[in-house]
Amino acid sequence: MKLKTFILSAVIAAAACVSACVSPAAKQYEEPALADYFKDTTSGVKNGGVQMVTINTPKGKFKVWTKKLGNSPTMKLLLLNGGPGATHEYFECMESFLPGKGIELIYYDQLGCGNSDNPKDTSMWDLPRYVEEVEQVRQALHLDKDNFYLLGHSWGGILATEYALKYQQHLKGLIISNMMVSCPDYGKYANEVLAKQFDPKVLARIREIEAKGDFANPEYMGLLIPNFYEKHILRMPAAEWPEPVNRAMGKINQSLYVTMQGPSEFGISGKLLTWDRKKEIKGLSVPTLSIGGEYDTMDPKHMEWIATQVQNGSYLYCKNGSHMSMYDDQHTYMRGLTRFIKAVDAGEKKVEL
């Protein structure tokens, strides 16, 4: 009887010790109660988490639209859309995955996009100005190094990279999704790798239309959709593209897109033509996840290389994915993104995915 009592006491003591020794980092993996996650902490009239942020620019004050979904004290993910000039809406697929893991989503339409003000001034479409805009949004939303994760997709990846190079002290984690850190390398990949996958006659006709600047010609998109978009942007028939994607792409600010990217998705010719940060990213110490897709418009090997150049890099490879890997290799993308955010929250800097 005494032996049984001793064993029982030892088990209880051991259990108590294990409970007491659980680190704060490990506890962060616990998913929040539903009521806590969805609790609206704002004052006044509730509006579903929408906040219009006033930003100061060289051309005056404007308002940009943000909306938060959920509450997390340590994992707040601000999303930078691509295009340039699309909207936050194609990120809505994340609602099916991240809230269930306790990650707070923050949608944001950049100036000139979606629900935000559109000054209709091409001088405003400028990368350094957008960096300062993101910083003002960060301050307004009270994001900091203890909770602030920044995800930029496509053009948003350029913006996120540039932001981190100037303001990484405010970041907890950085995600560069489906974007290279060199536009010259992006153009080279388009010309030397992707172009060679075209039927030569189709490519010749595309180049002919582009040379004439006849981008409004319906034949142009008629050739690009089956030969490029359905193979490298989102790998499914365009008629079956998810509604949030079509909604976001249908609202693209063409002035912003053409000014920054150029009129063609197939290569680059706008303001970003010479943007290159291959050398500078070595200075990034914030935990950084680079995401690449096998069929992407961007070179997946380059995006894997990014993870070796930053000081605390991780790489997520979507073997079935293209430029919109969050849709055409969805479970790989969401599982890896969630794993990265929660691992960094638990104190890891480099994450095996």
TrEMBL record:
PANTHER family, A to Z: HYDROLASE ALPHA_BETA HYDROLASE FOLD FAMILY, MONOACYLGLYCEROL LIPASE
Record-linked PROSITE patterns: PROKAR_LIPOPROTEIN
GO molecular function, one term: hydrolase activity
Family classification: Belongs to the peptidase S33 family.
Name of the featured protein: Proline iminopeptidase-family hydrolase
Domain AB hydrolase-1: 77-328
Signal peptide stretch: 1-20
Statement: the UniProt record of this protein carries the keyword Nucleotide-binding: no
Organism, as annotated: Mucilaginibacter pankratovii
Top-level taxon of the source organism: Bacteria
InterPro entries attached to this UniProt entry: AB_hydrolase_1, AB_hydrolase_fold, AB_hydrolase_sf, Peptidase_S33, Pro_imino_pep
Keywords: Hydrolase, Signal
